[in-house]
Amino acid sequence: MFYYILRRLGQMVVMLLLISATTFAIFFAVPIDPARYTCGKNCTPTILEGNRKSLGYDQPVPVQYAKFVQGLATGRDFPDNAELRAAHPEQVVHCPAPCLGYSPLQSRTINEMVSEAWPVSISIALGAFVLWMLVGVSGGIIAALNRGKWPDRLVVGLGLIGYSLPTFFIGLILLTFVAIQWGVVPVPSFKPFLPNPFDWAINLILPWITLACIFAASYMRLTRAYMIETMSEDFIRTARAKGAGKWRVILRHGLRASLTPIVTAAGLDLGGLLGGAIITESVFSMHGLGFLAVNSVTTMDLPTIVAMVLIVATFVVMANLVVDILYGFIDPRVKVGA
Amino acid sequence: MKNTKLVAVVATGLGLALTVSACGSATSPGASGTPAASSGAAAGTPVKGGTLRLLSGTQTEHWDPQRTYVGAQIELGNRLFARTLTTWGTVKSDTEQAKLVADAATDTGKASDGGKTWAFTLKDGLKWEDGKAVTCDDFKYGISRTYAVDVITGGPNYAIGFIDIPTNADGSSQYAGPYKKTGQDLYDKAVTCSGNTITFKLKQPVGDFNNTVTMTAFGAFRADKDLGDKSNYQIFSNGPYKLQGTWEQNKGGTFVRNDQWDPKTDDIRKAYPDQITIDESLTAETLYERLIANKGDDQNAIAFPDNAPSTALANIQGGAAGRYVAVPSPYTRYLVPNYKSKVFSNEMARKALALATDRAAYVTAAGGKELAQPTNSMINPALPAFPNTPLPAGEKGDPAAAKALLQQAGMTLPVKITVTYRKNDTLDKAFAGLKLGWDAAGFDTQLVGIPAKQYYGTLQSPDSASKYDAYWAGWGADYPSASTVIAPLFDSRVNITAGGPGQDYGYFDNKEFNAAIDATNAIADGTVREKAWGDLDVQLTTKHYAAIPLIVDKFVFAKGSNVQDAYVNLTFTGYYDVATAWVKK
Q1: Contact A47 B3 (CB under 8 A)
Q2: Does B422 reach chain A within 8 Å, measured CB to CB?
Q3: What pTM value is reported for the model?
Q4: What fold characterizes domain B51-274+561-583?
Q5: What are phi and psi of B470, to 5 degrees?
């Protein structure tokens, strides 16, 4: 198991390097000059050159990439202009390893930006995850156990509605009525978990509901389908015949056997969400990783783009790894090395 | 099965309802028909105190005065913490034109040597937030930072253009700014301090240099507070407010009173609120929802700088009656015929294009009369120089007259032309309408929509001259002198190089016109000078047909019910002027 994880982590590092190199290559292949963006309205060629230098895009692309990788390993000092760093040490910004870079458009290191944004994304993702797993899986079980009866139809119907309403619509409706018009909860703005967890939760409740709506709907359908299939298996009949209680049969035998595909989906969804829930973040003005990602693309901020791609990729790869490891515990048949 | 169907029907119904309401908002953006009609009238005597809240959906790129180039930040910088030598006065209504007034200087500047030398004397009693006096050297140092073009990026480069320092062969200034100090002696000769008087020696006469210095890029900066790029969001105030704590990008900050600011030195800033907060974490949609709802603290808020998005326009008239205003934006949208194209090198073809241009179609596409007005002037209506040139053939244009012109010019109809525009939904519709008018006049128009990010880059590329016949473009003045419209767009000497047309996208290159720009720049009397800019504008649009102005779009802004005396200062920047605003208790 240990070597398996080690090997997977090794593969991950190689993959992340490839991804970041590709991002660099694509960025410079696009026919848009990022220096033009910072150059102001009456830009002249020599001032454009100055801007390119301040952005660090004046060096050959491989050199820029090498410096980026080096920064990840050993940290870096900015501005990238050695002459200026020597003459004006007061202007130097140190970015410790693993340095993701410095965004000249935000005048700060990306590590700083990410450290501000990740609590927002994690809070939104985890809260929504708990909510949708609770509602989705229990709804699915209820539907499966009452197949064809009214609870089933109700759950399936609600699921369909939840699934067909777009996130921005649910988000805007909740924001406009629940927060702005009726004032049931404050207009959401991110508050840290400490010192006041209640404040944190009350500000996040609308984003959680918004995000959970669409996911709960699909997990209801998923759980229902797998539960129906599992509950008609022979081993369930055997368990019942042996006199196991109703809920023991449902939870120990039925649900556990249905869990494998649900865990797979949940792991990947959560991994993707940790990298930012773009629409939810934007509707509720919460500036998590998703907002950073969108903002970096619209402003052509290469260092942030590369960092965001790396972070999202890391979350997805990690989620995959966790799911693979969890399989071993849920389903003894796929235990690694067994 | 039956129930699932029912749900599907309900869902479809919801979808339909959504579509219908979306259409509703697109076709009836119920903004006020008369500009400025619905802005709140003053209610009583202003009182000090309270918190004025600025709700923003736009991230502040720079607070560093020398790197500030966006109207919203120029205004807030000037009104809150960075006093400039001169500035634009406050207004008592949304339609009033502001006047140039002295700010940190005792008057609006003294020109000599035919406008090549300008001197400003600082007022006594100006102080930084740490109590030290604001000196002439602080202004001199601040302005010098503009020359450090690889550190202090993003700001306007008028200093480099105007101040008499020689340039290198590649066009760069021989002065490299205060960090490298290369050419420091050249700067010290061109900008001098004598006691409290700062004197600028310029390369050429600039009659409106006292307008130029209203930009915060000509503001003071204390050398011992300069951390280069690290200073971008650090605010060191010499105005009525200072930043409490630090500025948080994408979130905002709180400005509190600067007790070192002496109101006796300041006729402009009333500084009524105790605090001014800026929340830039919002989106334009949500902030207008909040302003329309007008609940709690949002009653003390104004939209700044975002104008109402189309989604909010439908509700604003009913929901924010008396609390919103529709004003002309600072931007003029126009069409440039390409002088290097075979068709439009012919003056009659340019005139035909102008005559056949259907501005009414553009206005409709832009959301109707509430959101756009047709224009035939390059200079914006908010500027003193606005010549208000009549439309050549009414709002719809006159394709028949245009056709006659093309035939008179001996061209074989249909005349093939390729016209570019910045691709988005509004301009797709607008250009489909414009094409109908042009085609009716005998043109065969091919439209090319270019993505926004590549748009101006494409126009400025030297290859475009042989590919396209006319371009859509947009421009707003940097400061309310028409010198920042006519010269940067139509002076071929500063624009056209082997590398491309600069901002003279259509390669308009006319020696007499360039000479007239120089002559106008040198006029000392403001009224005479602005009139002369207006005349040049008329020449461009009715004699040379070097530009075909299309529309000025309108911006809608809203405020909370407690905010009083907040007027849109069109001349200064086109946003609510926070200098006079106060909060009713």
Answers
A1: no
A2: no
A3: 0.87
A4: D-Maltodextrin-Binding Protein; domain 2 (3.40.190)
A5: -155, 155
